[in-house]
Amino acid sequence: MNLDERKILIANTFETTFNQVGFKKTTVEGIAKKLSMSKKTIYKYFTSKDDAFKFLVERYAKIQVEEIKSDINNIDDYWDKLKIINKICFNKVNDAILKGEKDEFSFFYPDKISVKAFQSAYREMVTEILISGINNKIFNVPDVDLYLIFIESIIANGIENIKSHPIKDIEEYTYNAVVKLLK
Fold first, then answer.
1. pTM above 0.85, yes or no
2. Which of 19, 107, 131, 167 is most buried when burial is the number of CB atoms within 10 A of its CB?
3. Which residue intervals of the chain are DSSP H helices?
């Protein structure tokens, strides 16, 4: 087994354990036992369980970005790209609600790793669209980071309202609020 394969094996074991017993109860010692490895071997790949968690989030974020990019790559209109990303976000939330995942940390997916990965992917894609839209004089945004915070707040508020209103209405109102912000 080469170094990359061993790192993936260890990461996958961390992921399985995080999902089975939670982050707090997962230990490097427990992972080492499951894999019949020494803790020293685990520490060659990850400095801590936090480091393994970060690795998993980054791995899933890359997958999410690629999935979102495949949905928007052939679209030239920046407004349409934002609308599709908004729709993806709301569809994931709606799917989670239908499955009974109403905990704020489990809104998009059943585990925290996926939630953080989706948030990271969403942020990366919206930032890319904003910067490109600014460069092409589509959006009038003086501070990308500040506007990204505003957009995330609008989305979060829309998500909170899904519980009491039909998803289509909230999705449309949220998108329209983002459009108003960027014009």
1. no
2. 107
3. 3-21, 28-35, 39-45, 49-72, 78-98, 112-135, 144-162, 167-182
